[in-house]
Amino acid sequence: MDGVSKKRVALIFGGRSSEHDVSCVSAVTVAEALDKDKYEIVLVGITKEGHWLLTDSIDSIKHGSWIESDKKAVLSPDTDRTLIINRKGRYSELKIDVAIPILHGLYGEDGSIQGLFDMADIPYVGCGTLSSAVTMDKFFTKVIVDSAGIDQALYVPVRRYELQDMAKVVERVEKFHAYPVFIKPSNAGSSMGISKAHNRTELIRGLKGAAKHDSKILVEEYIKGREIECAVFGYGGTAFAAGLGEIIAAGEFYDFDAKYLNSDSRTIVDPTLPLGKKAEVMKAAVEVYRACDCFGMARVDFFLEEDTGRVVFNEINAIPGHTSISMYPMIMKHAGFELSDYFDKMIEMAYHRND
């Protein structure tokens, strides 16, 4: 890029959530795709303990050796947009032009780091503080989706402290809906802590398991049907649905093991749906995206109910995975958007967040 300075991009990965390892894989994919002629990429990893480290190579992320870096990195909340580097007591500074958080789950996808970017006046890729928070929290997503008039699974909210009287919680759930039911932590991604209960014993076990991940839990009606995911891109009036994918889970449902550890799980890009259902899903996806004030990208997931053909909202993911088996980049590529191209567009969007 003759005569044009590169943008210094801080790509932040890892994090304290249960999805730390998935984030590292996603970060490698994104870092390798970014145009090195346009961007100077600064790789900042957050350990599982919450320590920020600067690493010099993508290979160190692949091999896991980045956690041995002797370069500590602190993002200043001051509006001078500075990353402060501490190497064995010697300090230096790097000015940051734009940030790309490739962080899944708590402390990365929930508005935490987005709030820090806002304080530091650093343009950043993806959803803002509010939309990140509400899309990460399944309970509040449901409240918003209800207000938008989108069909979704019925649910009972449960607080962790209520489990002290498990019999009362079980009674409330069993009055709400017949088995089977799904149990989900309100704040968790990659299907962590999610289980399906066919009876009271499994319900109690599932509630206890979900409580390990969050203080708020949802118990949802079971929707029997196809799992359809939609990639949405853009912001405001420019937001559009790029296409659909379908999950064929190896297990009884698409939990963490089925998603990342079982090679029998399959994804289908641009699945064949009954007449009119593709357009219905894509329309609903954009409505959910806008209702949650999303920005840049998000994956919006639905069920296509088996007996009724009903399109039922499931959940929304504000920083979708970018591993080799992740649906979002596959859908975007099928729609004609290479990863490097749509990240270029999102970096450009970052400077127009308040337009």
Describe the protein's architecture and organization.
There is one protein chain. The chain is of the alpha+beta class and 355 residues long. The protein has 11 helices and 16 strands. Strands 14-13-12-15-16 form a 5-stranded antiparallel sheet. The radius of gyration is 21 Å and the shape is globular. The two termini are 28 Å apart. Residues 258-262 have low confidence and may be disordered.
- Distance from N terminus to C terminus (CA atoms, Å) equals 28 Å
User: What's the pLDDT, averaged over the residues?
Assistant: 92
Let me know the number of strands: 16
Cα-based radius of gyration, to the nearest Å: 21 Å
Q: Ranges with pLDDT <50 over ≥5 residues?
A: 258-262
Q: In terms of structural class, how would the helical and strand content be classed? A: alpha+beta
Order of helices and strands: EHEEHEEEEHHHEHEEHEEEHEHEEHH
Share of helix, binned: 25-40%
Tally the helices: what do you get? 11
Strand coverage percent? 25-35%
Largest sheet: 5 strands, antiparallel
**Strand order in space, largest sheet:** 14-13-12-15-16
Shape descriptor reads globular
Task: Compose a concise summary of this entry.
With 355 residues, the protein is of the alpha+beta class. The chain has helices at 20-33, 58-63, 112-120, 129-136, 138-147, 166-176, 200-211, 256-261, 277-291, 327-334, 339-349; strands at 7-14, 39-46, 52-55, 71-75, 82-87, 90-95, 98-102, 155-159, 181-185, 195-197, 216-221, 225-235, 240-248, 266-269, 295-305, 311-317.
